[in-house]
Amino acid sequence: MADLHSLVDDLRAEGDDLDALVGELTSEQWATPTPAAGWTIAHQIGHLSWTDHVAERTTSAASGDTEAETEFGVTLKKAWEDPTGFVDAAAEEESRNPDLLSTWRTRRRAMTEALTQVPSGTKIAWFGPPMSAASMATARLMETWAHGQDVADALGITRTATDRIHGVAHIGVRTRDFAYVVNQQAPPSEPFRIELTAPSGQLWAWGPENASQRVLGPALDFCLLVTQRAHRDNLDLQVEGADALHWLTIAQAFAGPPGVGREKA
């Protein structure tokens, strides 16, 4: 993975690109439904705003801010009280904020600044296992990119992919076993080989070269698959091996229960 400052720069750029999509929307456009059932564009940005704020609070706590630590603890408690509904509830509440755009801008700036202040080697508490600042930055980039795709789809816009999606692909590979666990299945013991062509044309690879289970193709298509933003049959991914083929039916780079994915176009 890249160094923390490069990851934070990518995160900032991803947020700025999404900001450019929504910055001039009318109130009617903010109410446009997105591919996520029940979520408008306002819900998508509201979700990112809320999550960026929570990420900033726990990241600041990792740097010694005791007030932030207390706030994150309260949020964590509320989440466990409603594990299947707290995300939707927060998105709904945030979507009604009349200053949603400016609030999101303030929160994401605070979050990226907090990430650069975390002492080296310090783990950041989260809803799952604690993570490094680099992992938190990568996770926030993945989610910003994925929800940005929902917004772009709602607006009928085709985004230009950048090599920032390396972080999305990396999480998609690293969460292979998690996808099996949340689907109550045993992960394969054999490592997979993943070879992806970046938007720049560079080859990105994970896993042993001689692995019999392989996934190859455009990095963009792989990222759309692991974030469940496109149906497997609509993507140009080559698969070798039954285990790898099955993985692509359940892969998810995001935390939480199995997603429903997108319908075949």
- Average of pLDDT: 96
State the separation between the terminal residues, measured CA to CA: 34 Å
The gyration radius over C-alpha positions equals 18 Å
Task: Quote the beta fraction.
Answer: 5-15%
Helical segment tally?
Answer: 11
Estimate the helix proportion, in percent: 40-55%
Structure commentary:
Strands 2-1-3-4 form a four-stranded mixed beta sheet. The model has no long low-confidence stretch (mean pLDDT 96). The chain has helices spanning 4-22, 27-30, 41-62, 66-81, 86-95, 100-115, 133-155, 166-174, 176-182, 219-226, 242-250; strands spanning 193-197, 203-206, 214-218, 238-240. A hairpin with a 5-residue loop joins β1 (193-197) and β2. With 265 residues, it is of the alpha+beta class.
Concise account of the structure shown:
The protein is built from eleven helices and four strands; from the N terminus they run αααααααααβββαβα. The protein is an alpha+beta fold and 265 residues long. Strands 2-1-3-4 form a four-stranded mixed β-sheet.
